[in-house]
Structures are given as C-alpha cells and as structure tokens.
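ok, trying the design again with the full structure, not the truncated one.
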C-alpha cells in the first residue's frame, strides 16, 4: 500500500483534487484577484519583483496568494539580495523565508 504524500504546508492541492470534489479551480484562483488570470509561472515572475515587506503583505491577502508568496525561491532571492547588498554574513534558518 502506498503512503499518501504529506499535505502541503499552505493547503495547496493539485487541480485534480478540486475536480474530484466537484469544485472549481477557478474559485481558488479568484483568491489571487486580477493576477489569477495569469499562469503560475507568470505570477511567480511578478512576485519576484517584490521585497520582503511586500511579499509578507501578499501572504496575508488570501490562502491562494499565501501559497504563491511562500515559494522558497522568492524568499531565497530576497535573502540573498538583502544580505548580499549589505555585505553581511547570513545564517540560514529552517527555510529562506525565516532567514
């Protein structure tokens, strides 16, 4: 028997799960507002322009926006830019967002 994968920390599920429950993926994407019309890669690209305070604001807007704004690569770039610009030593914590 296969073990089920662990749940996503922000409740993100594959689109097929919504389909199987008779729900619309579009309903979940409405939580993204106007940027929900874009594909995932474009949304992540747009969020890549934000600094830490702006990403934090996006995280609290909705569960859908929190899932996107919590993407590790976004926070890695923020941390590296922040610490690299200052020339400070950086201590990695549990994830890039906490760093």
């Amino acid at each position: 028997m296969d073990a089920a994968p662990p749940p996503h920390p922000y409740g993100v599920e594959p689109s097929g799960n919504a389909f199987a429950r008779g729900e619309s993926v579009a309903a979940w994407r409405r939580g993204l507002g106007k940027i929900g019309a874009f594909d995932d890669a474009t949304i992540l690209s747009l969020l890549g322009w934000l600094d830490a305070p702006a990403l934090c604001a996006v995280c609290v807007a909705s569960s859908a926006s929190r899932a996107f704004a919590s993407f590790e690569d976004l926070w890695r770039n923020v941390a590296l830019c922040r610490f690299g610009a200052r020339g400070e030593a950086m201590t990695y914590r549990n994830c890039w967002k906490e760093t």
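Keeping the full-length input from now on. The first helix runs from residue 15 to 20.
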